[in-house]
């Protein structure tokens, strides 16, 4: 059988682009590019039933924030608009003028800073079961913002860079030093129904 | 200037489309790799609140979601408008939460378990009561790393 040797026929690749387009459009439509963002918190571990009473914390060292069912704030015994919470919290945490009714300070050895007066602040947050989640998050956000602003200010004056930048650069020693001076202490009270 | 002599008889030469499939494939692969299919169908309405001090959640594989909100419109006839908890694809009660935490933990390998974060996707109009209950349940089973899912905004007021 004398047959001519045939080359296999070429596959027409002209429609390849169309097929690829089809797939591309499918993935374009189904893709969700949302990065999940949020406020990260650690819950306190559950209390053992026979826990000894925690040591008393002095009144001046605690910043009490109460939120009622009508989303109103009671801060340190006074009604406060949420817009002013950040300023008030900053003043409390740093206590720049060493006022007697704001937190005490303790001299502590901090890397880069040497002996530095670190305030013994604690923020206590308590909300009602009827508080709206939006208000709760806003309060959490304002308190976190107060800490972040103070850290930024301190980092800027000491290292010439904001705290956020230090975090971004991964400069762990410096961020740890700043965290040691302004540790974020937001304690949430055990829930109880205050009513209202 | 003999070097820059005009060639041809004018008219625009056709652009070669031979590399078009390659370009499209490149895009295709990009989207194939980055795409994340939505695994759960939401049965509750969740509009998360805004916040300024947000952090990005790294490692999506180490995040489990808990949705809280009122049932979506189609389901309100059956389930009412009271906020409910949704785990995976179904409504759940508080009592189911420890089991959910346990299954989520078991689906990760040993080393990653302590890094598991529970992201609370809560509708902003929800009352804190149900959120507090969920937090208490999570504390009981030692799932302490949580994240309040919020959208980033530059200015709140």
Nutshell version of this structure?
The complex is a heterodimer of chains A (196) and B (157). Chain A is 35% helix and 20% strand.
How would you write the strand order of the largest sheet of chain B?
5-4-3-6-7
Which range best describes the helical content of chain B: under 10%, 10-25%, 25-40%, 40-55%, 55-70% or over 70%?
25-40%
CA-based gyration radius of chain A: 28 Å
The fold-level CATH name of the domain at 50-152 in chain B is Nucleotidyltransferase, domain 5
CATH architecture of the domain at 50-152 in chain B: 2-Layer Sandwich
Number of helices of chain A: 5
Spatial strand sequence of the major β-sheet of chain A = 4-3-2-7-8
Would you identify the CATH architecture of the domain at 62-147 in chain A? 2-Layer Sandwich
Q: How many strands appear in the DSSP assignment of chain B?
A: 8
What is the mean pLDDT of chain A? 82
Instruction: Indicate the overall shape of chain B.
Output: elongated
- By CATH reckoning, the class of the domain at 62-147 in chain A would read Alpha Beta
Radius of gyration of chain B: 25 Å
Percent of sequence in beta strands of chain B: 15-25%
Could you list the spans of chain B in which at least 5 consecutive residues all have pLDDT below 50? none
Compute the separation of the termini of chain B in Å: 68 Å
**Average pLDDT for all residues of chain B:** 83
Strand fraction of chain A? 15-25%
């Amino acid at each position: 059988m004398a047959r001519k040797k045939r080359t296999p026929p070429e596959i027409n690749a002209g429609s390849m682009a169309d097929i690829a387009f089809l797939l591309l459009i499918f993935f374009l439509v189904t893709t969700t590019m949302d990065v999940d963002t949020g406020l990260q918190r650690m819950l306190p571990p559950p209390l053992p039933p026979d826990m000894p009473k925690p040591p008393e914390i002095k009144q001046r060292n605690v910043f009490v924030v109460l939120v009622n069912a009508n989303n109103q704030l009671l801060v340190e015994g006074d009604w406060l608009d949420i817009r002013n919470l950040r300023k008030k919290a900053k003043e409390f945490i740093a206590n720049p003028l060493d006022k007697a009714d704001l937190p005490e300070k303790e001299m502590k050895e901090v890397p880069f800073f040497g002996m530095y007066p670190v305030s013994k602040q604690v923020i206590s947050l308590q909300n009602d079961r009827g508080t709206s989640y939006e208000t709760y998050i806003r309060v959490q956000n304002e308190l976190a913002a107060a800490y972040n602003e103070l850290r930024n200010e301190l980092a800027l004056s000491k290292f010439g860079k904001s705290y956020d930048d230090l975090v971004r650069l991964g400069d762990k020693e410096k961020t740890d030093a700043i965290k040691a001076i302004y540790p974020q202490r937001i304690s949430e009270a055990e829930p109880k129904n205050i009513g209202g | 200037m003999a070097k820059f002599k005009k060639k041809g008889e004018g008219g625009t030469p056709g652009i070669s489309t031979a590399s078009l499939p390659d370009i499209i494939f490149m895009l295709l692969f990009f989207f194939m790799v980055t795409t994340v299919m939505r695994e759960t169908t939401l049965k509750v309405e969740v509009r998360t609140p805004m916040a300024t001090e947000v952090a990005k959640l790294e490692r999506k594989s180490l995040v489990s979601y808990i949705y809280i909100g009122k049932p979506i419109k189609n389901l309100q006839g059956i389930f009412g408008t009271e906020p409910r908890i949704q785990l995976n694809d179904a409504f759940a009660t508080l009592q189911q939460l420890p089991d959910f935490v346990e299954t989520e933990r078991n689906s990760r390998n040993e080393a990653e378990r302590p890094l598991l974060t529970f992201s609370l996707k809560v509708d902003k109009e929800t009352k804190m009561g149900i959120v507090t209950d969920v937090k208490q349940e999570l504390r009981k089973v030692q799932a302490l790393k949580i994240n309040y899912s919020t959208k980033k905004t530059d200015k709140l007021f």
